[in-house]
Amino acid sequence: RALIDIGGAFDIPMLKSYGYLNVTLNADIFSFRAGISLFDGALSSHVSVTWNWDLTFFKMELRDMNFLEIVKIKQVLFMYDTRAPVSYAIFQCKIQVLFINLAAKVEIRGNEIDFAVTLDLALVETTVSGHAVVASKFEDSEFDIS
């Protein structure tokens, strides 16, 4: 049962503009989604947040942020989930400035970390990626990254 469940939208076809908002709040979760697009997408943005009150899940995502076709934030995502047997967290972003694209991603699953960074300059694309396993032995006070 929702304690709060709000939704709304607007549309102005003559200006090629629209927006929306959804908010849900109940005993288990808080959820917020909103977006706006003005003048056929010349300025736009979308955001969503989902948060379980027991702190087992959180997700925040910004996407499609467009500033006059010069800077585009395609996605910024942060999420963690501890409901599964192995905890999981991710940070991911994709940004474009004129013709330069930058993408970065870090995933943590249990004691393993995967990461990748990609720079695309239209003619040349470079990616750096890696994998790490973090292990600690508290009884010996050792710390190892391999």
Describe the structure.
The protein is mainly beta. The protein has no helices and eleven strands. The chain has strands at 2-12, 17-26, 29-38, 43-52, 57-67, 71-81, 88-97, 100-109, 112-120, 125-137, 142-145. An eleven-stranded antiparallel sheet has the order 1-2-3-4-5-6-7-8-9-10-11, with no helix packed on it. A hairpin with a 2-residue loop joins strand 7 and strand 8 (100-109). The radius of gyration is 20 Å and the shape is flat.
Distance between the termini: 48 Å
Rg calculated over all Cα atoms: 20 Å
**Average pLDDT over all residues:** 85
**Order of helix and strand elements from N to C terminus:** EEEEEEEEEEE
Give a brief rundown of this model.
By secondary structure, the chain is an all-beta fold.
